[in-house]
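User: quick one, fold this
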Amino acid sequence: MTCALIRSWILLLGALASLCLPGCVESDRTGFAWRVVAISACHSGSFIETLDDGQTMVLTSAAADRRSYGCSHRAFLTFFGRGLFQDAVPEAASFEDLFRLARESVAIRERFERYTPSEPQLLVTQAISDKLAQWWSNAGRGGGATAAR
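Assistant:
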């Protein structure tokens, strides 16, 4: 396979994902009016605009023009996945804090490995931020992780 053909496939798959992904997380399909979507993939920041509906928080492992790192058949989590779900969860005080801590974890790992920064991205509106703050405080007081519908 030539590099041009591979690039064409990547562009095609990216375009298809941009068209299909919003439908996968729409409230009438999932039953959830409020959503947090974490995407760990190279160029995952390109999905932010597509998923921007005011009720979805989007966390991506990389900017639209950047690679993400840590993908491997031997790795259970990517750098971003590890930063988000393993390193940040015990310390986070909010979803925004969770993202900030994960982004810091990724940056440390990338500097150590001498990789070009992936620049993880966050989309959050005031509406979803308020809803998630309410959920987080209920979960923190033993209210459980019940989904807000």
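User: anything notable?
Assistant: Helices lie at 3-25, 27-30, 48-51, 79-88, 95-113, 126-143.
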